[in-house]
Amino acid sequence: MKSSVITFPGSNCDRDMDVALKKFGFKNKMVWHNDAELPKSDLIVLPGGFSYGDYLRCGSMASKSKIMKSVINFANSGGMVMGICNGFQILVETGLVPGVLLRNKYLEFICKNIFVKINNKTNRYFNNIKNNVLEFHIAHNEGNYFCTQDQLKEIEDNDQVAINYCDKNGKVEEHFNPNGSIKNIAGIFNKEKNVLGMMPHPERMIDNCLSGEDGSIFFNNLINNLK
Amino acid sequence: MKISVIITLKKDVLDPQGKVIHQTLDGMGFNDVNEVRQGKYFEIDTKENDPKKAKDKVEKMCKQLLANLVIENYKIIDLK
After folding, report:
1. Pick the catalytic residue: A13, A58, A85, A166?
2. Is A201 a catalytic residue?
3. What is the pLDDT of residues A181-225, one digit of tens each?
4. Which ranges constitute the DSSP H helices of chain B?
5. Of A95, A98, A70, nearest to B65 (Cα)?
6. Which helix (H) or strand (E) is B5 found in, with range?
7. Would an 8 Å CB–CB cutoff place B23 in contact with chain A?
8. What's the CATH number of domain A2-226, 3.40.47.10, 3.40.50.880, 3.30.2350.20, 3.40.50.300?
């Protein structure tokens, strides 16, 4: 399986993602934002970081960069595109997934492990995964998911919520919402479920020495689903 | 010509920074503030000299990049 990770100026989780993808069997290539063409890929990843220094709005500049035209075409033709953290912010700015990510409700940069409940397994990201709850890591200042009431209705009608913040038993309550996101939303799909944006970093949980291995469950499952 | 644009958060969107500024003003003794909303201000100097054309172009800029219309409104306030 071939993957590509896009590096924007200011990306800082691109190499972590490269290590993670390779560990679980992907042949990964790093792609510079100013390139026009994507290498042949089964999965494109927009990594975390602070692309363009978060100028204007997080992800807004990166969403207009040269390579994103190809990424948008790839996504619109059914290709798998996953945006993590800043990658999620870039995806919402392209309009590939609905909504926006606002400043965290309590204005603090949050950096900690959290639990997420998988809301929808009928897609190639979470299909066949045995766990209902995964422990991931979050590190963000703008992860407060927001959308209009009309968008929320559409998202729920199409079952586009991917994961919600929860406790270790999978209970989704406001109390376990770290950043004020509507309905504890931590990740969301496009209508067709080939594009996934999420704030948590599975690539930070791929080894016991990195405080957990639930990311390994995610990547192992993902590559098997793509085969 | 020079064009100014203000971008503001829509009414229903939470503005935590505005809230904190409000609280701080309160703490400084400015007790009569009802609400503070923080926004963005742009000055765009364009080669276009026709006011209508310039305004149309800036409007496009607002829609495509400067504002995110899910959460923000834009207002072109000044043409010089």
Report:
1. A85
2. yes
3. 999 999 999 999 999 999 999 999 999 998 899 999 999 999 999
4. 16-27, 51-61
5. A95
6. strand B2-9
7. no
8. 3.40.50.880
